[in-house]
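Subject: mismatched residue count in predicted assembly?

I count 865 residues in my input, but I want to confirm that the predicted structure covers every chain. Input:
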Amino acid sequence: MNIIAFLSSAIRFSAVFLFGSTGETITEKSGHLNLGTPGIMCMGAIGGCVGANIYVSNANTIHAVPAILLPLLFALLFAGLTGLLYCFLTVSLRSNQNVTGLMITTFGVGLAKFIKADLGESVDAAIGAVCTHFRNLFPFADNLGWFGEIFFSYGILVYLAIAVAVATAIILKKTRVGLHLRAVGENPATADAAGINVTAYRYTATVVGSAVSGLGGLFFIFDYMGAWDSGLTSTEALGWLAVALVIFTVWKPDLGILGSILFSALYLLPNFVEVSFAMRDLFNMLPYIVTIVVLVLTSMRKKRESQPPANLGLNYFREER
Amino acid sequence: MSDTDKAEKISPPCLSFLTNQNGGKTVENNVALELRNVCKYFGEVIANKNVDLTVRKGEILAILGENGSGKTTLMNMISGIYFPDEGEIIIDGEPVVIRSPKDAFRYKIGMIHQHFKLVDVFSAGENIVLGNSEDGKFRMKEVNARVMEIAEKYGFHVDVKKKIYEMSVSEKQTVEIIKVLYRGADILILDEPTAVLTPQETERLFAVLRRMRDDGKSIIIITHKLHEVLSLSDRVSVLRKGEYIATVETANTTESELTEMMVGKKISLNIDRSEPKDVQERLVVSALNCNTREGVKVLDNVSFTARAGEILGIAGIAGSGQRELLEAIAGLQHLESGEIIYHDPKTGEAVNLRDKTPLQIRELGVRLSFVPEDRLGMGLVGNMDIVDNMMLRSYRKGKSAFLDRKNPQDLADRIIEELEVVTPGSHTPVRRLSGGNVQKVLVGREISLAPTVLMAAYPVRGLDINSSYTIYNLLNSQKENGVAVIFVGEDLDVLLELCDRILVIGGGKITGIVDARTITKEEVGLLMTKTSSMNEEKEAEDHA
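Triage response: the counts match. Full output below for your records.
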């Protein structure tokens, strides 16, 4: 087993989980348990496809910057809009968060499938045309040996994922906005009485969080796969792992960087060690088992700081008596 | 330019209104806040109707009223939680619109809610700065320094870095008060601030409030404890069933006059305590030890005897182990060690309840009617109607596969009639009833089963005076029927009047079992805080 290649693959693939979990953490900090994340990641993936399709079918030559930017913007837009739908249902129409989340997953997967079928085969060509630009941000990495392979061999989205996670951690910990967001998720009645606009914070956090999650789907199709293939089934499965990762990292996006690498290493392990076909599925369970162990450990320790936001999953209405 | 602005601000009609009210005396603008004709409805329920109120600068105004009289709703409208359906709010002579708590802060109004609005996992400093959107960089250090400044000015003790979940109730209250002062509030509203404090903590709070009044701040305090009103406030405004009754100078009024205004009729507030007769040992608890799931000790070597024909009161700061103690007796709590010996009046046998399941304990006649903070949490199912809730205790008696609703129906009707439960019918979901009525249903059901031991925790929490006395009388009649009654209460005055003996619990330890007829409130208060202060001393020694 080639350790360097394994590590490098794990770091690269971790972007799927990291985007997904960072986005979900932002959402959950506002008190929204968005179980629609897998569907939102699918929407991000198909958004990227729509963007790529528009660009490739309208441009004569493919340039790197718009080839990345258009799919990226469309991924953010599609995923963000799906998040907006979730907010509209739970905040404005007061529907149950769990049910709405699961509905969003089903809806996202279905709608993505529909759009893909509607766009036809031109999408596959478009993905193929732009996907090289998503990879290998630093061409000089090949000359740096193992150092280059571990630190510089990735596409732009991998670095973006880490940057977003670090930025989120800083915002949550160090800024007024972060303090207010955490207060909204912990105790919306308190935040409300303190003059914080709970509705605005919940809407913004969920839409931004969903947009970030959607980039996980974009990365998976455009960087990792480089083709649609069976993209949706895998994206959905990876989305559930991203939700599990939020719990695994006890709602800390900076821990998410390490956690996502661990999850991706566990996920890719069967590719690097010789195992029978039947064993592969057992290996794929590892991330879930690790999450359950962490859940049990944190709830046994009962440290208040590593518990979920106290009002996670609960809607807030001010004048309810 | 600025002069004309000012002239416009003090609008003539408003000024004339004030002068008229004060009999032509000049008003040196010492009215901080005025409410005129304020109404609020929740659906068809009238929460407030035509309320007029004035608060002066540098005074303590008490708002007196029973539970459900609309005190909190009224204050919530001033602090922007609710929006009035009708009427005007006038601050410094200007009509204002308060749509949100943010608006209230802008008019320098700060409310300290009865249920603290604090984020548990945040530090005191973080909670205090929460929602402040002042310009400039966000630095916790500067925030903490300003908090300490305020604390020193008014004589608070606070640790800014301490997390809320590590704090005692009185510490949390301090954080709440500093929070509104930090925002520069000049009008402070306190909603039942003493409900959870010991007499000593209450005195300390009152000292701080007086200092703030002397500093020129307006303080509105909501309460239903008459003696506090008399000792603290300058004026009293009384509400009854959502309507404004009157405002009187505290110096010119008496306790009975206030009660009459509050309840609407003369009532005697005396509990008829009979001498216990035919007293027998019913429940002997010895050396109980109990840990929470996290391994924290909640009951520490607790021993006492509950006797038939006697009311044993349990006093203590909230969360000192009262709940665990009652649950232990009811078989709902895992015990580390100890014995609970029950003397069965029918057979004369002594049985250890530790070996029994909760069901067997109930069969023996030991009843727990626990009224938790959310009222519906234990004992009743909110979405089920009164009849079905009666069946929660009797469903095992049925013989056929189908439910028999006849007996529960009779029982429900009887409780509704005898305890004057206000409900559209016996098939109304319990959750739709008001808190007081829910409690009557719960206590009524437990009493109906002819218990030998009746444990009631906070049975009058949230009840109006009349309902409270109905419950006290029920407990008294149970005692006269030879039931061993254990009563966990919050109001020390009531405990002293109702109980025969009082067991004081502090930090899971029994700090005293005293005769309720001879002890004073202050002595009980000291016992309540005894263990915690002993622990602190110990800690201080450890540090040294």
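Chain A touches chain B at residues 174-176, 179-180, 182-183, 186-187, 189-196, 302, 304-305, 307, 310, 318-319, 321 (CB under 8 Å). Marking this ticket as 'not a bug'.
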